[in-house]
Amino acid sequence: MEMQLVGREEQETENTGNGGREMKIELDEGVEKSAEVSSNGGSENVSRLRSLLASKDRDFVISNAQDKVKVSDLQGKIIGLYFSANWYPPCRNFTQTLSAAYQQLKADHGDDIEIVFVSSDEDLNAFNDYFSIMPWLAVPYSDLEVKKSLNRIFDVEGIPCLVILQPESYTDEVRDGVELIYRYGVQAFPFSKQRVEELKQEEKAKHESQTLMNLLTNHDRDYLLNHSGTPDAKVSVSSLIGKTVGLYFCAQWCVPGLKFTPKLVSIYQKINQMLRENSQDDGFEIVFVSTDRDQASFSSYFESMPWLALPFGDPTIKDLTKYFDVRGIPCLVILGPDGKTVTEHGRNLINLYQENAYPFTKARLQILEKEMEEEAKSLPKSEFHQGHRHELKLVSEGNGGGPFICCDCDEQGLGWAYQCMECGYEVHPRCIRAVRPQPSTQT
To answer: How far is it, in rounded angstroms, from Cα 14 to Cα 100?
Structure first.
């Protein structure tokens, strides 16, 4: 019978007769896996690694060239357990990011770190195709029991997931490795809890000292491009000081961006018209932070925008993407007149409140939320919506609602919505196109 881990509980019993200890890990059907360990902890670490990565008939992991690497050879290294699958696009996307980070980590730190792929692929061919692009090691695809036990031990509920184990005991783990790689990259090394806390404090200090100039300029550039996109059309970053500024992360290849950009253009123009009518000179500005793949795409897309932009390929773009932890586009980050971050959810606020969201502050949003609550009192408690056969009920965060994607306009929503209790269909109240219910054809 193959041994299979069923939990994380470990029992240590004192003295095996030689001054060491015996570690026992509970297994299915009462089977116990034990190993004598010396008092210096070295053998104990090997035992822990074996209990995680080896099985009764296998004491190795493999490379994508099918070379066998003994589990004991990983002792003393930081180990990343990478739970992933070829069939899931976010996994494939993160694998590219992780691969670049891994190669840099290997160049900087040599053999101090290793990653082991724990596959959730559906068949061997999918595993082989996916593993072929990975520069690290893997649990063999055929060892289903070890893969299952690792998922149980580390409570893996979603992929991609990267669990980091420290070599001191291989029990002190950091489970948000995906977040760390996306947010900090190789700067997160050695991925210890202490290093994570240091990075958080450094990040907090950066945000507290944040200014428009240190966000949008670098050693070689202190200007932005205007909407014409010509090389000589430059606007000084310093001219934006004192304004509310939106950083618009988007690209021409992004389908949701193609839908949201025209809406943002309209809102941008309405906000500035409103400010001019109220004799407010500060104004509202937006800076396009492009992730387009080439200069031609950038130039073409930028022509449709009435605001400013960072030059295509400027190194500040990557810095801003990492600094604001931008995971998806379009994304609109709002900076206040003092250069500090007001919100990273500008897109959602535009969808909810249109131009009324300006200046996007907490005080303004509290006013809008109260107004929405009052307006909701006069809304019908249910509606039939054109294009959907079921009755929709009016819900809010307090009675079954929450963040959603409107099935009519495909944009984000929060707060009040009309929701189908049968199939989960949801629309903004403003998107409702009320129709009379159709008589049932069922007998």
So the answer is: 45
DSSP 420-431: ETTT--EE-GGG
Burial pattern 413-427, b for ≥16 Cβ within 10 A else e, equals bbbbbbbbeeeebbb
Q: What is the pTM of this model?
A: 0.63
Peptide bond into 262 cis (omega under 30): no
> In the structure, what pLDDT confidence band is assigned to residue 307 with cuts at 50, 70 and 90?
very high
Over residues 395-407, the mean pLDDT reads 73
pLDDT of res. 46: 67
Label residues 41-70 b or e (16+ Cβ within 10 Å = b): eebbbbbbbbbbbbbeebebbbebeeeeee
Residue-wise pLDDT tens digits, 91-113? 999 999 999 999 999 999 999 99
d(CA 384, CA 386): 7
Q: What is the Cα–Cα distance from 196 to 431, expressed in whole angstroms?
A: 43
- What would the mean pLDDT of 326-352 be, rounded to a whole number? 92
| Domain 212-367: which CATH number of 3.40.30.10, 3.40.190.10, 3.30.497.10, 1.10.12.10 | 3.40.30.10
What is the spatial distance between Cα 11 and Cα 21, in angstroms, rounded to a whole number? 10
The amino acid sitting at 391 is E
Q: Work out the angle between the directed axes of helices 193-208 and 177-184 (0-180°, nearest 10).
A: 40
